[in-house]
């Protein structure tokens, strides 16, 4: 099938301007998978959001002083320079409108305490009567083969319960600027910028496709916006968010083209097929460095691949904006019931994606021009049993790209089957953020037994160092190796908290890999900002 030039509409198409951010929120906070899932939302609300808000209200200046230290940027400190009453209002609203979710979190915590104290090896049937009725019909308790008790949560049933409230889902539209954005995991996203507007629309609503995909009638689109906007919003304010600028054309690439959009976002195009991985995309005018934007995406994204459920790889700010372009989403298959291993398939289906496919290790999705193969994703999840993660191998028109994201295998031989499937790799992307955060930085609200400081510091969300990266290059012998997913582009730091510096250990490791590869006559390159490759 020939690659078609993207010309969505020849008549004027009014849509959300590329100079306006779309910031999805859940109860006022940055939307990420563990907030979307009703299984985990209450735990994050109680043990992260409410805890930080109470701390801020007790001593706002302590938070502000901490944030004056760059090393504290990713810590549990709220970056709010406005009225303290804003945070108090959000705290009070949270206690009121999230009461069902907080009750669910308490029931889950009580369940784990029950298993810890009473499940000693004897039959478990008698324990069901002691489980909170709020969750009792949505789970199964069991023993593993080592006599350790466990629980299988039936996550889909939680989406059908009071624990899931799509009414908590909103989005803020605000003008793009170069102003530094507050760290997303510790600061609520309150509308503050001049010209910003909050819309109370669940993520699954077709409205977002109409807003981002466009409509020929500006008045009709403005009417839709005003239906969901705060009272008093004027037509002029709504119209200012829109554009009817001609949509860019995207001529067919010669051969297979690979574009790096920053962090872990890669676009592979060729033979009439477009494949986008881990979309996290910048806007025009957001920063001074050269970068691709939403305007550089094709009109149709045939396959959208997600590597793992971290907040810098499942970015609703990008996903909701491009949903109308997406054909099939490919995610890793969750284990089916562990608290920490939420289903990305369920999550994205509840966010309005119509065709989400799960792949297990070494399963493949074939199409006429090639195939997508899922390979094991090792480590980088603080040694928790999380299975909704995949390395993606993409074969397109005879060319092979493998995207490892942050996978950190214990030994290169773990990928022997992947090497057998793809003995020749044209392009290999490897994450080397080898410092990482400790387990509690992301997973603290889920842990039912606290870690010691030593345990916490040893269980990190880290990728490959130079020694492992070099060993992987020796093992696979790719034509080209690119280091990516370092979290340092200006449009990523509000999610990763990493501020680019060549003095950081992870960047020193990446430079060491480049030097080692050069000495062997091989290619290794640290990416930053943007890159275009023709295979």
From TrEMBL:
Residues 15-246 form the Diiron non-heme beta-hydroxylase N-terminal domain. Transmembrane segments: none annotated. It holds the Pfam family CmlA_N. This is Diiron non-heme beta-hydroxylase N-terminal domain-containing protein.
């Amino acid at each position: 099938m020939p690659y078609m030039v993207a010309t969505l509409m020849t008549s004027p198409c009014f849509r959300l301007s590329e100079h306006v951010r779309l910031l999805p929120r859940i109860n006022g906070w940055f939307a990420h998978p563990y907030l979307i899932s009703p299984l985990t939302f209450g735990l994050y609300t109680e043990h992260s959001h409410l805890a930080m808000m109470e701390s801020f209200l007790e001593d706002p200046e302590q938070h502000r002083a901490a944030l004056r230290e760059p090393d504290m940027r990713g810590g549990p400190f709220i970056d709010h320079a406005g009225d303290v009453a804003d945070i108090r209002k959000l705290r009070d609203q949270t206690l009121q409108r999230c009461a069902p979710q907080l009750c669910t979190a308490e029931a889950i915590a009580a369940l784990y305490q029950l298993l810890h104290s009473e499940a000693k090896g004897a039959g478990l049937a008698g324990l069901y009567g002691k489980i909170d009725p709020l969750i009792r019909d949505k789970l199964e308790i069991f023993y593993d083969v080592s006599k350790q008790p466990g629980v299988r949560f039936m996550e889909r049933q939680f989406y059908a319960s009071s624990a899931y409230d799509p009414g908590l889902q909103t989005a803020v539209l605000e003008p793009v600027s170069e102003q530094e954005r507050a760290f997303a995991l510790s600061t609520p996203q309150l509308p503050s910028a001049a010209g910003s507007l909050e819309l109370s629309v669940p993520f699954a609503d077709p409205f977002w496709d109409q807003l981002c995909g466009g409509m020929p009638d500006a008045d009709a689109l403005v009417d839709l916006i005003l239906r969901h906007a705060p009272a008093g919003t004027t037509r002029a304010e709504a119209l200012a968010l829109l554009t009817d600028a001609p949509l860019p054309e995207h001529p067919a690439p010669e051969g297979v083209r690979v574009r790096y959009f920053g962090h872990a976002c890669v676009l592979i195009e060729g033979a009439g097929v477009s494949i986008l991985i881990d979309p996290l995309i910048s806007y025009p005018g957001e920063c001074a460095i050269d970068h691709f934007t939403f305007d550089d995406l094709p009109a149709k994204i045939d396959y959208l691949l997600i590597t793992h459920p971290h907040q810098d790889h499942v970015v609703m700010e990008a996903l909701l904006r491009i949903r109308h372009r997406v054909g099939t989403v490919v995610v890793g298959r969750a284990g089916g019931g562990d608290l920490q291993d939420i289903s990305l398939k369920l999550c994205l289906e509840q966010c309005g994606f119509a065709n989400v496919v799960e792949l297990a290790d070494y399963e493949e999705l074939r199409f006429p021009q090639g195939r997508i193969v899922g390979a094991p994703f090792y480590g980088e999840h603080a040694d928790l049993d999380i299975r909704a993660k995949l390395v993606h191998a993409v074969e397109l028109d005879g060319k092979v790209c493998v995207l490892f994201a942050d996978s950190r295998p214990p030994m290169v031989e773990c990928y022997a089957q992947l090497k057998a499937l793809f003995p020749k790799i044209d392009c290999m992307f490897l994450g080397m953020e080898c410092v990482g955060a400790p387990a509690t930085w992301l997973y603290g609200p889920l842990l039912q037994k606290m870690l010691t400081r030593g345990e916490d510091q040893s269980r990190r969300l880290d990728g490959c160092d130079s020694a492992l990266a070099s060993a992987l290059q020796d093992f696979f012998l790719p034509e080209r190796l690119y280091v990516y997913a370092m979290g340092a582009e200006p449009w990523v730091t509000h999610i990763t908290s990493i501020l680019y510096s060549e003095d950081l250990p992870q960047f020193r490791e990446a430079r060491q890999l480049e030097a080692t590869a050069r000495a062997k006559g091989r290619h290794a390159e640290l990416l930053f900002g943007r890159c275009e490759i023709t295979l």
